[in-house]
Amino acid sequence: MIVLGVESSCDETSVSVTQDGKTILSNVVFSQITTHQAFGGVVPEVASREHIKKMTVVFEEALQKAKITAKDIDLVAVTKGPGLIGSLLVGINGAKAFAFANDIPIIGVHHIAGHIYANQIESTMEFPLIALVVSGGHTELILMKDHYSFEKLGETQDDAVGEAYDKIARVLELGYPGGPAIDELAHTKAPTYAMPRIQTKGDYDFSYSGLKSHVINLVNTLKMKKEPIDKAGLASAFQQAAVKHLIDKSLKAVEDTHAKMFIVAGGVSANKHLRSEVEAHFTHVKTSVPPFAYCTDNAAMMGIAGYYQYQKNPVSDSMRINGHSRLNLE
Predict the structure, then answer these.
(1) Under 8 Å between Cβ of 234 and 190
(2) What is the pTM assigned to this prediction?
(3) Residue 246 CB neighbour total at 10 angstroms
(4) Structural domain tally of the chain?
(5) Is 55 helix (H, G, I), strand (E, B) or coil?
(6) For residues 308 and 190, what is the distance between their CA atoms, to the nearest angstrom?
(7) Which residues have C-beta within 8 Å of that of residue 225, sequence separation ≥ 6?
(8) 322 lies in some domain
(9) Domain that holds residue 303
(10) Predicted confidence band of residue 186 (pLDDT cuts 50, 70, 90)
(11) Are the C-beta atoms of residues 88 and 80 closer than 8 Å to each other?
């Protein structure tokens, strides 16, 4: 089965061609990072307009690189949410137009399912497994007992880990995107500041507002006292606390569910410290973290997720498929 995937949930315009839920024939991604750097974050209206400019170009390039034509495609899989509604609608309408013009079935795919299935590209999922979803908008622990079976065990009670990274990077004037900047800086020095211990009500829940507020207040206090700020030492202290929280909760979930595999999904899975901590602490189970190229938003992961979704429920969505800024994975 050849699947054409379409992703436009935030600020990447991407179209891919995948085969049998594993092989990537093409994966074209147009990033808007440079466009949004001047604003210090993604501006929804600007993102939507940039998607419109690039959508047809990305479609054409994906087909050319895969060396196929529309008649070779069996299914169109497009991100239907969650995400920025304007951005989602550009991708959905492009996908619907392509599917309608070429008489191809189309399905809407959950964005987080796509991130989870990015792990299928170079690994093979073994069930039951625990998926740690970490991004700018999500911090969740998902139990999967089979393909396309999702049970949310816990989630953030407030801020997502990626959001905390970006806000602290802004306070430290490290630029956008903030996550990679903090990760790089943190590796240059040992922690030089104390961080609070994070506590949550649920065993599998997360919380980052307290840690974020502590760092922001610390920076503001140092500025008011006109004392120097050790940015590298502070970045290191924050990152160690943030990642330890993820690892501790994930270890408990793996042990309690007797999972055979632990995977990481989402943009923060590109974090080097998180990747090294997963390797160090999860030696008793099989692990998977997506290749760097598939950590951030891309259509290949959506095509692969779409393949498994269609295998489980081979029903095409109607042309009335719509976008959803919020969408339950379960």
Answers:
(1) no
(2) 0.95
(3) 22
(4) 2
(5) helix
(6) 43
(7) none
(8) no
(9) 2-117+294-312
(10) very high
(11) yes
